[in-house]
């Protein structure tokens, strides 16, 4: 209907119908988009105050955010402030920055879920960790019966033991580290790989081979035999693929998104560590929470501006060099 380079970045589909003379379809699509966005916004307004209520009850947020209204039986303050904060973020930041910030948190959550599935599936069952299945003999001292390297390729074990759990844990840990390394190689050496440079292809192949060996070793380990309603199939292949895709997409995001995410995670972990170490008074909690909120706003507003300023300076210098080269 229209060449891709003539598409509008903000509303491509309505503009395409407008260019071919279908103005009625343009307005129908616009109304449908508004209805779809309204549905998503209404759906997001209900769970967010509940999450804020749970965090306020645990002491991670202001206490008044967890106050339930006697009339409406809902956390009114949390609902109002979450809506105002969402509107403020939409007013201050570009849509791409908000989408990136949401994406990195969602991808990290999916990655943690996939890793948790792997760890839980290969852990020792506390109820029958010394009981063997299908007539196997009892395993009472697994660390002395087989070595670690032998257990990497499963020394005739069918029931999880402490040694097999340790092997699985380190396999999964090293797999995650190698996945991060493989993703970085694919991102930063993309031009060399696409050009067929032998050392870049060899580097990708070596890291991929190590990941395959560790995945195969994890696949050979005995799995937990707990009876549950549902178990993730194709372990450990499916969770490893999920981790790889999520990590690769996270590393493709901008540096400003990583800075915002790092500041947010640092404040959350710092606050949780303070709550674990010692009880805090109401005044100290509110003071630290206010300082943390100010620091978050500073990071969200000032740091991206500094990054954009540095990028603009670098771009201007590169442009000056090109102009100087052309002149002389």
UniProtKB/TrEMBL annotation:
Subcellular location: Membrane
GO cellular component, one term: plasma membrane
Entry's transmembrane regions: none
Pfam families, per the entry: AA_permease_2, AA_permease_C
Domain Cationic amino acid transporter C-terminal span(s) in chain numbering: 230-269
InterPro entries reported in the protein's UniProt record: AA/rel_permease1 (IPR002293), CAT_C (IPR029485)
Any Gene Ontology biological process: L-arginine import across plasma membrane
Molecular function in Gene Ontology: L-arginine transmembrane transporter activity; L-lysine transmembrane transporter activity; L-ornithine transmembrane transporter activity
Record bears the keyword Transport: no
Keywords of the record: Membrane, Transmembrane, Transmembrane helix
Domain of life, source organism: Eukaryota
Membrane topology listed for this record: Multi-pass membrane protein
Annotated protein name in UniProt: High affinity cationic amino acid transporter 1
Organism: Magallana gigas (Pacific oyster)
């Amino acid at each position: 209907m229209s060449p891709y380079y003539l598409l509008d970045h903000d509303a491509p589909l309505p503009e395409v119908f407008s260019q071919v003379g279908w103005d009625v379809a343009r307005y129908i699509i616009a109304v449908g988009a508004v209805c779809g966005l309204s549905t998503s916004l209404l759906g997001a307004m209900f769970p967010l105050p509940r999450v804020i209520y749970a965090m306020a009850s645990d002491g991670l947020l202001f206490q008044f955010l967890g106050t339930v209204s006697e009339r409406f039986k809902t956390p009114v303050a949390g609902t109002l402030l979450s809506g105002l904060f969402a509107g403020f973020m939409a007013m201050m930041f570009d849509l791409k920055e908000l989408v990136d910030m949401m994406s990195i948190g969602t991808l990290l959550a999916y990655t943690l879920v996939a890793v948790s599935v792997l760890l839980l599936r290969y852990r020792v069952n506390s109820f029958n960790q010394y009981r063997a299945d299908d007539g196997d003999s009892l395993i009472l001292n697994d660390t002395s019966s087989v070595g670690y390297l032998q257990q990497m390729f499963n020394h005739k074990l069918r029931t999880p033991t402490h040694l097999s759990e340790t092997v699985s844990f380190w396999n999964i840990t090293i797999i995650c580290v190698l996945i991060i390394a493989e993703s970085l190689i694919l991102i930063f050496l993309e031009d060399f790989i696409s050009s067929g440079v032998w050392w870049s292809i060899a580097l990708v192949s070596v890291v991929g081979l190590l990941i395959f060996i560790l995945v195969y070793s994890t696949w050979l380990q005995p799995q937990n035999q707990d009876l549950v309603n549902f178990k993730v199939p194709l372990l450990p292949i499916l969770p490893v693929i999920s981790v790889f895709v999520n990590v690769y997409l996270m590393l493709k995001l901008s540096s400003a998104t990583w800075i915002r995410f790092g500041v947010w995670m640092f404040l959350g972990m710092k606050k949780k560590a303070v709550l674990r170490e010692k009880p805090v008074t109401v005044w100290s909690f509110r003071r630290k929470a206010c300082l943390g909120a100010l620091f978050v706003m500073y990071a969200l507003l000032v740091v991206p501006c500094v990054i954009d300023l540095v990028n603009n300076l670098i771009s201007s210098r590169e442009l000056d060099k090109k102009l100087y080269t052309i002149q002389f």
